[in-house]
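Predict structure. Chain length: 249.
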Amino acid sequence: MADHLTEEEQIESLKRWWKENGTGIVTGVALALAGYFGWQWWQGKERSDAEAASNVYQGFVEAISANEGQPDNKQLTTAQSLARELKDDFAGRIYAAQASLQLAGLAAQKNDLETAAKELQWVLENSDDEALQLVAKRRLAAVKAARGETKEALELVQGDVPPAFAALFAETRGDILVQQGDKEGARAAYQQARAQLLPEQAAGSRLLDLKIENLGEAPQVESDSASEDQSQDEPAVEADQAETNKDAQ
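Prediction complete.
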């Protein structure tokens, strides 16, 4: 009898425990399953979106290649349409930013600087890739400088950047300063770029040297000061010599 009561008590205890905790357990299991299947769905969607974006970008590249530099042929129109699709449907992916960079380059070649600036600005505002953002920023500075917006252009290439971009940004600052007529500022920027070249960028040193040479000779401030010091010392030297001759006599 005691054993029977014990079993009944255990059953009642289990019922009470389930009543108190059953809802939480069911909810927890449901959330775990939802999280698992949600993660699986998200990963599947990511793969699907990545594949779709890659296919659109491949079509874009083929259209650009078929364009062969012609300004307004059908292939360029196709490329522009595919680029819009990438920006509308896959704005956060690297393919959209790469397409905008290429369209900006084509626009700049046609001297359509307004379109080039818009494409580059889109990359700055939408891409999460630091390298692509830095590429877009440097090119946008060059485009703005070509449009005469030198102040805004110079602001884009100020500040610290990763070593791989340091020399290029400094060189661009030099180009803008030349346009502003600041030869000494440009010389300093080019020299900084020369010093910041990485080993794999060594081929750019000759161009920087030419840009520095084209600025002419740097002012010889120290030499002029030395000449002034020497001229100031000459009377003292002559006086000392006269005093020496007097003592000799």
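Summary: Residues 55-129 form one domain.
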